[in-house]
Design brief:
The protein is mostly helical and 194 residues long. The chain has six helices and no strands. Helix 3 packs across helix 5. It starts with a helix and ends in a 17-residue tail after the last helix. Keywords: Membrane, Transmembrane, Transmembrane helix.
């Protein structure tokens, strides 16, 4: 390559092209170092739910009450050299504030996860209800079609009543016209009609 052509390519490509290497688009980028640690959001969410469940129990209130009573009794009745939090109990207030500041977000996180689960369950219930409604509508249409079809089908009772009506009508015609039916002919008598 000639030096003039090299300088022209550098000028066209820009200053950044010469200072950093070009990465290939068909290969993944190397992982970057992160300043913050990485954690599994699901594991953290499950842990927060366990803590929130414990914070919402009577056991937690009993244990918290026992710890506070022991704290106060110790810092009031212990020898002055062994007391670690004197009367206004500033350190106890700080610890309770710290506990509350961690408990509130953990409870909110657990509630958000529960809301997400409830939303998924509601969506599944809605889809199931839609399927059930569609199935019910289909079955209703099928039953209506069967009823319409059965209305057109000749039943045994209907055929019997129709035949009885025909027999009565024929008997009335027979009594009026004196026509001899084959059942009424005597067996030995030949009428000669063919």
């Amino acid at each position: 390559m000639t030096p003039d052509r090299e300088t022209r390519e550098r000028a066209v490509a820009g200053a950044t092209a010469t200072t950093r290497p070009r990465s290939r688009l068909d290969q993944p980028m190397p992982p970057r170092r992160r300043l913050l640690p990485e954690w599994d959001p699901e594991a953290f969410g499950r842990l927060s739910e366990r803590i929130a469940r414990f914070l919402g129990t009577g056991r937690f209130i009993v244990w918290m009450t026992v710890v506070i009573i022991l704290w106060v009794v110790w810092n009031v009745s212990a020898p002055r050299d062994l007391r670690f939090d004197n009367y206004p109990f500033i350190f106890l207030t700080l610890m309770l504030s710290l506990q509350a500041s961690y408990a509130a977000p953990l409870i909110l996180l657990a509630q958000n996860r529960q809301d997400d689960r409830d939303r998924v369950n509601l969506e599944q219930d809605r889809k199931q209800n839609e399927r059930s409604i569609a199935d019910t509508e289909y079955l209703t249409r099928e039953i209506a079609a069967l009823r319409i079809g059965l209305g057109e089908v000749a039943t045994r009772d209907w055929i019997r009543s129709e035949l009885e009506d025909l027999v009565r009508a024929l008997e009335e015609d027979h009594s009026d016209s004196h026509v001899v039916f084959p059942a009424e002919r005597s067996p030995g008598r030949d009428t000669g009609d063919h």
